[in-house]
Amino acid sequence: MKLPIDIQNIQFIAANAPEPLMDFDSRQQRTDSDGKAIFVLNVIALTKEGAEVLTVKISDPPKGITQGLSIKITGLVATTWQMSDRHGVSFRADKIEIFQSSPRVATA
Q1: What is the CATH number of domain 2-98?
Q2: Which of 7, 49, 63, 95 has the most beta carbons within 10 angstroms of its beta carbon?
Q3: Structural domain boundaries of the chain?
Q4: Is 33 left (phi over 0), alpha (psi -120 to 50) or beta?
């Protein structure tokens, strides 16, 4: 089941540059149902309650995103999954782009 996420009060910061999502068995880049390559991006989601790191999948590779940039996410959904005794939540977005006039976050 896909659950849309209300992101109005969440600020997102890129934790790294986008990377190809690789298939564990074939070692080839995974594709979506339309045959587009899938990428992953770790993002820091900031709210007034705190921060969380999410791994977000996207089919269109975000351009120019580097660690520390403020980003805008469109169409973020959470999907639950289960394999044998393992289960979790995965995140997918329709679009990720650099947030206009974004200040860089200092990195160590």
Answers
A1: 2.40.50
A2: 7
A3: 2-98
A4: alpha
Half-sphere exposure of 74 (CA within 13 A, CB side): 9
The one-letter amino acid at 4: P
Mean pLDDT in residue range 46-62: 92
CA separation for the pair 89, 54 (Å, rounded) = 10
Q: What is the pTM of this model?
A: 0.82
Tally of CB atoms within 10 A around 18:
20
**Cα 23 to Cα 4, 12, 60, 101, distances in angstroms:** 25, 27, 18, 36
pLDDT category of residue 96 using cuts at 50, 70 and 90? very high
